[in-house]
Amino acid sequence: MKRIGFLSFGHHQPVPGSMTRTAGDALLQTIELAVAAEELGLDGAYVRVHHFARQQAAPFPVLAAMAARTSRIEIGTGVVDMRYENPLYMAEEAAATDLISGGRLQLGVSRGSPETALDGSRAFGYVPGEGRTDADMAREHTALFRTALAGAGLAPGNPRMTGSSALLPVLPQSPGLGDRIWWGSGSLATARWTAEQGMNLMSSTLLEEDRGIPFGDLQAEQIAAYRQAWAAAGWTREPRVSVSRSVLPIVNDEDRRWFGPRAARDSSDQVGSLDGVTTARFGRSYVGDPERIAEDLAQDAAVREADTLLLTVPNQLGVDYNVHLLSTIAEHIAPALGWRPHQDALARA
Fold first, then answer.
1. Most buried residue among 80, 163, 197, 209 by CB atoms closer than 10 A?
2. DSSP assignment of 13-34, as one string?
3. CA-wise closest residue to 245 among 303, 191, 290
4. pLDDT > 70? residue 272
5. Which residue, among 254, 333, 337, has the nearest Cα to 303 in the 3D structure?
């Protein structure tokens, strides 16, 4: 059975119509939406991480708060830009958050995406080594982070304190968290690399190629390449794969006011330049009648292949509106994809 969750970018700005005018609004409303999503029977509450922008930036406080206010729903990121991270400190934060959640953390990481800051990670103190790229640095940070999660000894003990100079692991440790790390991939090559590393696949909202076929078909090829590489690597556990979609059903006048003009404009993929050089294909939005959206999503090859669907939400419209949005999807769209609400939600209903 497919898992469905929401993905919030945590936008906040004091502009007309915004219900999230401050960073505090965005953080507190994300926590409230996670609580509401669990009550609706959804499976996940995820946040996107961007630096130097009016969005979510420091994920672990809000993830820990979501964990403390919920009991079942997965909490996670999609994704943390590893260029900016101290791998050992992040391992401590991730383990602590996972322990608070009771083992529900699903942590998406990657090299990151185009950003508002020019070489922003350098302002955080992280510069690639000689002959290394930003992507190399992100992968190196990720490798050390995962080593720390695995409990490897990393710092020699002080004999005066411990009676030994044996290498010490970072603490706390949270068993099983290492199997719940996902890599955000935007190409076939990185999907294969992700499988070789033994990480779950978080397929990006854009792919760094365009061959004139629908975005969902490109993603399905990426997922197939990932699973083939996973099998070839000999991993024994079953991997997980997620895709993200913008799904905006229109069922009342408020929906129509906000999203009616997008129904035709955003109904097809977009092709553009990612960095002035690389051509990328961006997925379409699903806007309009719920029954039609359900049919279209059921035909989306990548949605069919993934076990987890993350719904990007317009968080600046506030908690009440997004609960309405997710309720509409849960009732009228998600069942056509093979999803059913969690039994706790059915019992409350």
1. 80
2. ---TT-S--SHHHHHHHHHHHH
3. 303
4. no
5. 337
